[in-house]
Amino acid sequence: MKILIIDNDVSTTTTLVALLMSQEAFQIDVAHGGQEGLNKMTANPDYDLILLDIMMPNVSGLDVCKAMVKDPSLKSIPVLLMSSALPIPPEEFHKTLEKFSESSLIKGVLEKPFVIDDLIAQIHKVARK
Predict the structure, then answer these.
(1) What CATH number is given to the structural domain containing 28?
(2) Whole domain around residue 77: which residue ranges?
(3) pLDDT per position as a tens digit, 35-46
(4) Do 73 and 45 meet the contact criterion of CB atoms below 8 Å apart?
(5) Are 74 and 100 in contact (CB under 8 A)?
């Protein structure tokens, strides 16, 4: 299973890669920002899942989702959002999620820190097969 982790926090991505690789033989790529993630997806759109931090400088997780929805080669890749805090008021965030859910892009939101077993269960539940 090929996963792209997009998170500007290097310690988060390093820990996440180590935890995931210790559990299963995932093929994992990392991008340390929204634009880098979009560049990697555009160059190689065969990811089975995107683990995407919501709050990043310059190009946020929601900006990445908006760009993915507009690109036919990316709009079918499932996304699990990761966040330790919502970037906007809860009501507005849920309305935004509903918009993306209609396109079947965002499959869930994981609150940081998360339990690795829960993360792996979510990965298997929503990733492209």
Answers:
(1) 3.40.50.2300
(2) 2-126
(3) 999 999 999 999
(4) yes
(5) no
